[in-house]
């Protein structure tokens, strides 16, 4: 299984809602990532988990809260988002965090904040 | 600081003609380099990667890229474009000890 899955595919939420994005991989990868991608732009790194521990937080606002319950799962909890947070949220995984490791990307969750 | 330049924001080719997407990078150490493709409303798919082995790298779907250290370039080529190649292409540099640095992307259009 060489796939990263993400649910839901689409999500519409109000600014007072709480929602979660889910990401799963069964490749035995020990590094997992959250990216945010705005239209016509490259992905921007948000968080990196290595061996289920948060290793990088790229100064992301606290209304985004990542969680790694086990080595196969990665969640992104959303609370009190702003309309400018509307974007495609991509999850990725890699064997490790060495620079030679390619990242495998999921299809993304298209988030709209009203 | 590491950076990636993709010299063309948009490339348009006719079906059956060659594709050239240009990428230049700056990096303090020998980096790993990747090309990813993203079709509309999809995730990113790895086309190929360079990790200090052979300088000519073959990828999926007939794509290949050549690492030229003296020119700090990693251009992506394909001999004959297909309609299904129309997508956004990202060149990525992965410096030692750091995370992915994405180029701004090149949109490839393929005309019938």
Account of the 3D structure:
The complex is a heterodimer of chains A (114) and B (112). Chain A contains no helices and 11 strands. Chain A is an all-beta fold and 114 residues long. In chain A, strands 2, 4, 5, 6, 9, 10 and 11 form a 7-stranded mixed β-sheet that branches. In chain A, strands 1-3-8-7 form a 4-stranded antiparallel β-sheet, with no helix packed on it. In chain B, 0% of the residues lie in helices and 52% in strands. In chain B, the strands form 3 sheets. In chain B, strands 2, 5, 6, 10, 11 and 12 form a 6-stranded mixed β-sheet that branches. In chain B, strands 3-9-8-7 form a 4-stranded antiparallel β-sheet, with no helix packed on it. The mean pLDDT of chain B is 92. Chain B has 112 residues and is mostly beta strands.
List the helices and strands and how they pair.
The complex is a heterodimer of chains A (114) and B (112).
Chain A: E1 4-7, E2 10-13, E3 18-25, E4 31-37, E5 44-50, E6 53-57, E7 64-70, E8 73-79, E9 87-94, E10 104-105, E11 109-113
Parallel strand pairs in A: 2-11
Antiparallel strand pairs in A: 1-3, 3-8, 4-5, 4-9, 5-6, 7-8, 9-10, 9-11
Chain B: E1 3-5, E2 10-14, E3 19-21, E4 24-26, E5 32-38, E6 44-50, E7 56-58, E8 64-68, E9 73-78, E10 87-94, E11 101-102, E12 106-111
Parallel strand pairs in B: 2-12
Antiparallel strand pairs in B: 1-4, 3-9, 5-6, 5-10, 7-8, 8-9, 10-11, 10-12
Characteristic terms for this protein:
heterodimer, A: 114 residues, mainly beta, 4-stranded antiparallel beta sheet, 56% strand, B: mainly beta, Immunoglobulin-like, 6-stranded mixed beta sheet, globular
